[in-house]
Structures are given as structure tokens and as C-alpha cells.
Design a protein that fits this description.
It is a single chain. The chain is built from twelve helices and 20 strands. The strands form five sheets. Strands 9-7-5-2-10-1-11-15-19-20 form a ten-stranded mixed beta sheet, sandwiched between helices. Bound molecules: guanosine-5'-diphosphate (GDP), 6-O-phosphoryl inosine monophosphate (IMO) and magnesium ion (MG). The site of magnesium ion has 6 residues, from loops.
Length: about 425
């Protein structure tokens, strides 16, 4: 069976890009199926660093076909910017990149709405979105009336549809923008701009669902590259502090059109600790020097927005939940080297909520907000591990830490990463 899936099991930035790049070698097709340019996936190979946003991380291998399916939301200008950036660095980005005509298109009003609406979620803390218009575009997709898909840009009805939507959005955004200045959107200008962008994108646009059906029938090896992390899933994450797509394993079929029975191997990617960018509860967060130490050692600043990421200890309650949710078979533990200078390391094994110990991840954000982590403490290794390439060569304390994580999560750890470079990887 052909399908391997890479899913982040925390709140994003687990180093999925590095794992996808490593696995690309053994696959023929790499697929992005949800999210959009809110993702920032880093690949470091042969001394070069690439930051992929919407384009699958497999693009660095010219032998591989990259596919962006209908579950993704596309900003044509930023996609073309990414294509141009890669092409100027000598990365092949032509017929090896196919984009679905079903993908929904991000327009300037989505970005304006994202900025105006991300003030507070449920009357409290802001979500802290990436301000790329992701949520508003998905909202219009589900609402249907004001949505435009990539395939619509090539149809006669595009201009009339755009004019109708812009008239509505100008009224809606003016109402939202009370107190701040809002420059009305100009349908004619947007039509010209998007028509030009669509013409440039045309060679890439097609029916990715049909393409993937044929690929499955031909037993091709397909790698599905999840964006964000399972705890940011719109239905199963820490709502409302989530993204607007199914970023856990459950989103692969709906986003790509490939039935679940073809997805035979799910690799869950986790950091050796936890990070989160944006708002929302984070029980194991360290708001102290230790948190800053992890941020500095792990270079924990957003790939897309450069925002400092919040850092804390590994949360086994949250990841046990997200690993089950995503049907994970095996685990890749990333950034293990970041913990190398610690005297001791903590793992959250339960929460205390209103005086009761629980090991089940709460379904309501208010319970997660008051959850106090219950920790197990293990010794650190205090040795540089960035040059280690075999599990057997890791310090005993590092091996014991990985074993403990595997026991808590009930899944084998088959990959460990000890540095950003492709070569700094331990495979079982
Ligand atoms: P993604 O969104 O899940 O692909 O992750 P990001 O690219 O946003 O963030 C992961 C960061 O960690 C990137 O800067 C990677 O280059 C870096 N990285 C990946 N693996 C390791 C590792 O094992 N150790 C260290 N120190 N950095 C790593
Ligand atoms: P990758 O694929 C980390 C977070 C944002 C915010 C919330 C909603 O690189 O792991 P959105 O713009 O999606 O409406 O923002 O989700 N977020 C991410 N955090 N990594 C990401 O992607 C993220 N994509 C979105 O910070 O809290
Ligand atoms: Mg990222």
C-alpha cells in the first residue's frame, strides 16, 4: 500500500519539514493537503536552508511530483513568490508542482478580516493568527456564498462573481473596521491582478484528486505532509486557539480525496519538549530562564512570522491524545540536542484539574487553562549529542529519556533528530 503520512503531534513546528525531506527519497509523490502559507517548514541540506510555506517539502528532489490538493487555501501572489524564490535558487519548480483547481483562493479581504477579527477569542486572549487570511478563507469556503476556488479564476463568471463578493465585503469590512481606517476594495483592480496571477499559475493547475486516484491505482508511493500540528486541529484541537483546518491525521482524506484505507503508515513528529506560537493554554509552559534557554538553544522564533515561540516541557498527556487521534504508528523525536545542557528534564504525565488528577486531555479549553502539570523528573545528559548517528551511541540518560517518552506514548520511537541538518538524524 502506498501512503505514508507525516503529522505534527503538538502545536506545530515539530520539524515536520526535516522528516518529509528525509522520507522524500523513498517516495514518488509528496502532497500538501490542508492549511496554507501559515505553515513554515524548514529543510537544511548540504549547508543550504530552505523555508517552505505552501509548496511541499519534497520539491527539493526534482524526481518527485509535488501536489497541493483542494483542502489547501492558496494565496496566488505568495505561491508565485515561493515558486520564484525556489527557482532562483536552482530548485526545479515547473511540471513537478501540481495545484488543485478545487483549492480555495485567499483574497485581500481575507487578510483584512484576519487582522480585524484576531483581537480576542471568546472574549479573552487573541488567537494570534499568522495574519495570512487562512481562517477567513476557510470560513468563506464553508459558507459557500462568498468563496472563489482556483478553477473559478479561469471561468467566464469570475469577474461577475468577484464584483458581487467585493460589494458585500466592502460593507462587511467597513462595519468591522469601526474606529480604524479602511480603504474600500476595488473589484476591477483585484480582477486585473488575480487574472495575471492566474495566467502565470495555469501550467500548475489541474485536478489533483483524479491525479492521486491514478497514482493510488498504480501503487505509487505517496507521502502526505501535514501542516501545523494535531493540537491545532479545528475539530479536535484546543478550540478556539486552533487553525481553521483538520491538521491532525483525520484531515488527510478530506483534504486530499485519498480514502483512509490507502494511508498505511502514520509517522508522528514531536519535539523533545513543547513549543507553541500564538495564544491559547499551554500547561507545561516555562515562563522563566529555563523557557528562555530552550528558546535560544532551539532557535524558537517563528519560521513564518519570526514571533518568539513559547517553550516548555514535554506534555505526554497532550501527545498521547494527539497520537491516538492521528492513528500514529511510530514516532520521530526532534530537537533532542536542545535539551543537552539540562541537569534534569521533566515530562508531564498527568494534569491536576480542580484537585483531581486526570490523564485524559480535556475537551474544553477552560479546563486546560487551569490544568496543573504533574511531572516525572529524569536526569539530563549534559553531553553534546549533535554528532551522534546511532541510538546505541547516545548517552544512557538520553536513551532513557527517549524510552520513557515511548512508554508514555505507547508507540516506538524510530527516528531521533540531534540537529537541523539532514545528516543529523538517528534512524533505528
Ligand atoms: P515544521 O513547521 O514542523 O517543519 O518546523 P519548523 O521548520 O517551523 O521548525 C523546526 C526548526 O527546528 C527549524 O528551524 C529546523 O531547522 C530546526 N530543527 C529541525 N530538527 C532539529 C534538531 O534536531 N535540532 C535542532 N537544534 N534544530 C532542529
Ligand atoms: P507549521 O506547519 C505553528 C498557529 C498560529 C495561531 C493559530 C491560528 O509550520 O507547523 P492561523 O494563521 O492558522 O489562523 O493561526 O495557529 N499556527 C501555527 N503554529 N506552526 C504552524 O505551521 C502554524 N500555523 C498556524 O500561530 O496560533
Ligand atoms: Mg513551522
Amino acid at each position: 500500500m502506498p501512503g505514508t503520512c507525516v503529522i505534527g503531534l503538538q502545536w506545530g513546528d515539530e520539524a515536520k519539514g526535516k522528516i518529509v525531506d528525509l522520507l522524500t527519497e523513498q517516495h514518488e509523490i509528496v502532497v500538501r493537503y490542508q492549511g496554507g502559507a501559515n505553515a513554515g517548514h524548514t529543510v537544511v541540506a548540504h549547508g543550504q536552508t530552505y523555508k517552505l510555506s505552501l509548496i511541499p517539502s519534497g520539491i527539493l528532489n526534482p524526481r518527485v511530483q509535488c501536489v497541493v490538493t483542494g483542502g489547501v487555501v492558496v494565496n496566488p501572489a505568495s505561491l508565485l513568490g515561493e515558486i520564484d524564490g525556489l527557482t532562483s535558487r536552482g530548485v526545479k519548480c515547473d511540471q513537478n508542482l501540481l495545484i488543485s483547481d478545487r483549492a480555495h483562493v485567499i483574497f485581500p479581504w481575507h487578510i483584512a478580516e484576519d487582522k480585524l477579527l484576531d483581537k480576542d477569542a471568546s472574549g479573552g486572549e487573541a488567537i494570534g493568527t499568522t495574519l495570512r487570511g487562512i481562517g477567513p478563507c476557510y470560513r468563506d469556503k464553508v459558507g459557500r456564498t462568498y468563496a472563489i476556488r482556483l478553477g473559478d479564476l479561469y471561468r467566464d463568471g469570475f469577474r461577475a462573481k468577484l464584483e458581487h463578493i467585493v460589494a458585500h465585503k466592502n460593507t462587511a469590512i467597513a462595519a468591522l473596521a469601526t474606529g480604524s481606517t479602511f480603504e474600500a476594495l476595488d473589484a476591477a483592480q483585484i480582477f486585473d491582478e488575480y487574472s495575471k496571477l492566474a495566467a502565470r499559475l495555469k501550467p500548475h493547475v489541474g485536478d489533483t484528486t483524479a491525479y492521486l486516484f491514478d497514482a493510488v491505482d498504480a501503487q505509487k508511493k505517496i507521502l502526505f505532509e501535514g501542516a501545523q500540528g494535531a493540537l491545532l486541529d479545528i475539530d479536535h484541537g484546543t478550540f478556539p486557539y486552533v487553525t481553521s483546518s483538520n491538521s491532525s491525521g483525520v484531515g488527510i482524506s478530506s483534504g486530499s480525496g485519498v480514502p483512509a484505507r490507502h494511508l498505511d503508515q502514520v509517522i508522528g513528529v514531536i519535539k523533545a519538549y513543547t513549543s507553541r506560537v500564538g495564544g491559547g493554554p499551554f500547561p507545561t509552559e516555562l515562563n522563566d530562564d529555563l523557557g528562555q534557554h530552550i528558546r535560544d538553544r532551539g532557535n524558537e522564533y517563528g519560521t513564518v512570522t519570526r514571533r518568539p515561540r513559547r517553550c516548555g516541557w514535554f506534555d505526554a498527556v497532550a501527545v498521547r491524545y494527539s497520537a491516538r487521534l492521528s492513528g500514529v504508528h511510530k514516532l520521530a523525536v526532534m530537537l533532542l540536542d536542545v535539551l543537552s545542557e539540562m541537569d534534569e528534564i521533566k515530562i508531564c504525565t498527568a494534569y491536576e484539574i480542580n484537585g483531581r488528577q486526570v490523564t485524559q486531555f480535556p475537551s474544553h479549553v477552560d479546563d486546560l487553562r487551569i490544568a496543573k502539570p504533574v511531572y516525572e523528573t529524569v536526569p539530563g545528559w549534559k553531553t553534546d549529542i549533535t554528532g551522534v548517528r546511532k541510538f546505541a551511541d547516545l548517552p544512557a540518560a538520553a536513551r532513557a529519556y527517549l524510552d520513557r517518552l515511548g512508554q508514555h506514548l505507547g508507540r516506538p520511537i524510530e527516528i531521533a533528530s540531534v540537529g537541523p541538518d539532514r545528516a543529523q538524524t538517528i534512524l533505528s
